[in-house]
Sequence to fold (101 residues):
Amino acid sequence: MSKNSNNSFLAFLIGAGVGTAIGILFAPDAGGNTRDRLTFKLSKYKKELEDLVGELVEGKETHFNEAKTEGKRVITEAKNKAENLLNDVNKLIDQINQGDN
Fold:
């Protein structure tokens, strides 16, 4: 998601939360019941948001670790190929030197 999309989504969530809170506060119910329901809903939303943030962070770490592992594999593979080429070149140089003698 782009940064602008993230900001719009965050603004939407904040607006929805504020609207819900205002609706609950002005509902025809006793103040204690309203506060209890509001506290419960806010705790629930807080837990969901913490879980979502945790999943996002974990996802980034997973992608980072996968990229790091793939990078190491590519480097090792390139190093092995370079060593094989160097050995082949050394063998060719030895053959050429032996042919000159």
